[in-house]
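[Automated response] Your request has been received and processed.

Submitted sequence:
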Amino acid sequence: MHYVFLFFCLGGFSMLMAQPVTDTSKNTESVYWQQLRQQTADEMALVVLEDATLDGENNQQYASLLSAGRDAFYNAAAFNWNIARFKMRGYSKSLFTTYLNGVPLEDLANGNTLVNLWMGLTGVFKSREMVIGLQPNQFSFGNLGNVINIHIAPIQQQRQNILNYSVANKNYSHRFNYAHYSGQLKKGWSFIYSTAWQWAKESYVPGTYTNYLSLFFAANKIISSKHLLTFSFLGSSAINGQAAATTLEAMQLAGNRYYNPNWGYQNNRKRNAAEYRNIQPLIVSNYQWRIDQQSTFNLGALVSIGLQKSRGLDWHNAPDPRPDYYRYLPSFQTDPDLQMQVKKRLENEPNLLQLNWENFYEINQNSKETIANVNGINGNNINGLRSRYILRDNNVLNTFFVLSPVLHKNYSGNWQLTAGGTVQYQQSHYFQTVNDLLGGDFFVNWNQFADQNLVANTNALQNDILHPNRLVKKGEKYGYDFQMNIWKASRFFQISKQFRHFDFFAAEALSYTGFQRLGLVKNGLFPQSSYGHSTTNTFLNYAFKSGITYKLNGKNYFSLNMAWLSMPPYYSDVFLSPRTRAATQDNITSTKYAAYELNYHLNTSFIKLRITGYLTTIQDALKIYTFYDDGVKGFVNDALSNINQMNAGIELGAELRWNDKLQFAGAFTLANNRYTNRPQAIVTFDNSSEIIQKETVYIKNFKVPGSPQQAVNIAATYRPTRKGFITVSGNYMADNWLNLNRVRRTERAVQGLDTKSNAFNAIIRPEKLPDYFVVNLFTGYQFVMPAIQSKIKSNHLFVSLGITNLLNNKAMVAGGYEQMRFDFATQNPEKFPPKYYYAYGIQYFLSTSLKF
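Generated structure:
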């Protein structure tokens, strides 16, 4: 009956036909949980081998290749190549998934992992299972990129305390962390408590700052020898003063590659207009049932309510406040003498390149105005200081609910079955509020872009015709206000089989996803489509993957994995302008993926090696951009469909143990990630939904931007004693491209130009970023403190020092983008030149950790 009940919950799987192995276990409760506690919580080796011989097989059965917990290539990508924003296989973040005790930490609005959840708490999240690429696992169907399952199990930790303090010149200056592990207590309880705080009054980039606080609590309760409950609470608060990409011209005027236009002096103190805040408490509960010696069942549930705030400047009927606005720079001037005058003034008065807070206050405090018919009441006229400049908050209030059951069972004959499902619901409430009136009395809830084209629509100026001419005070809503309700139900089924020289697995999954917009204000431009519920968009998606491994012997493994799947688009690529209306793209389709990877693993006491060749095709992707189009003199929604691309390449990761004192590691990738077709674009006015352009985007064979497609890492580790080490690595990255402005790759952008001319090539040709070379150093030593120096026994003090970009190379462009604006009149791409982020120069962190 247990099995019937479980399979009914998982969606009625019908393939469980093999005979189960009889449970002959006579282990007592204490022995069973003692074995669990002894399982390591540290990072797993590159390749882990099963020592036990499986029932019914020859005793010369070769061990199977298990999932990787630590991989030389992954380490290089995560810790050495991240300075160039390297993406494994060129995949977007949505193709990587993180789980907490088998429960996905996924934002259904964009596919990203819930961010800032464990900032500074990496110590309590050390125990994890990482699955690279298309390999099978025992907690999910997987994804195209890496899948990580973080294990929270207080019962597996010995009793200890860990106290850590770090100083650095990174995005944080100080970091404090404390963790307490109770070990197993009476009545079957175990606990973990941890807190972390990291902050910087000013980070590496001028005007930026950081303040993160994280809290963590976890508890295990042994119900019996077969039943275990786990409860985890994770709370985080993040505050970031943000930097902005900017043009080379602005950087040169400021004399600083890390010039940040987001801040200015107010009362002789730096004040940043762009700030990000996030509060995200999260609760995960797990029930683990060891049905018998061959079967386990895990039920996980997640609940979270969090608020994100992104602060920035807003203005109405006033000049653009951004100091790097293109009209304020020398290049905007056509007269050479005037151009030189502007250049000299900006160089001699550097404060002109920063926000002028005093000017904002002065303008607002001199902006006396009478607003007629406030709230739509005739004769309700209010006089006061109308703020022309304000600070606004773009808010997202997220509510998450996830339920995730998984069953794993071993059968005789070396068969295994894993089956599971997930139910996810997410409500994201998007709204805008006033953060600071900057000396004014009120802000008016009017659409600053609509009032330029009122035409015959007298309500066009109103952001909400249900409350026209509304005056907005600090903390009150204005502008857009809508909810996006998203749900997803999925189930997966996986079987695997081990033979003497071969391993095989196959998995399939089915999911149903839907989302619906709920407008909470009636926009004057779109009174019929902005308010109330939209049509529900639903998608039924499939996934299938399979793989086979050939075990030449216990050291050499060859594997071939394949996957075919579809994924639904995200709402932001379906709705043309969800802030104002419910209109959608015409051709809404799921994105199709086909992925293949061929792997070779070598595992000896001297070398651990992985070589992978991969090919992934992506078809029918969607994308929507909103920007100011100079060709039509207004804001537009640019809806792209039928976007195809190919990601192909090779990966190599190796660890070589020369002797007990000297080790080497290396990683290499060579990729060819490019667009494979010419997508279609439909351009509509943001203020009317009128279609103004249907065109082809000529990006076929352009490289996919945003990540180096060539990278090399070589590292050497020397251990003079068993308690100390030093690692030095050299890293080379190349073939990275700037994010594209698709408008420049259309016929109207190059109309009338000779296809062989320099002017034509200047518009069409994408920009390749310079190559990178970075040297990093990491060293550490563990001290055993004599008991006489402390009342605490078994004192261990670990001191580590990390230095990135040891050569202080500040000429590396970490990323950037071509501005979406393009001047069709002059066809000069330099009128709106690209904006860049530069990689940081030399950075360090010095960390001390006391374990007792």
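Summary generated for your ticket: Residues 8-241+280-317+388-437+474-851 form a domain with the Maltoporin; Chain A fold (CATH 2.40.170.20). The helical segments are 2-9, 29-37, 72-79, 248-254, 336-348, 357-365, 758-764.
If you did not submit this request, please reply to this message.
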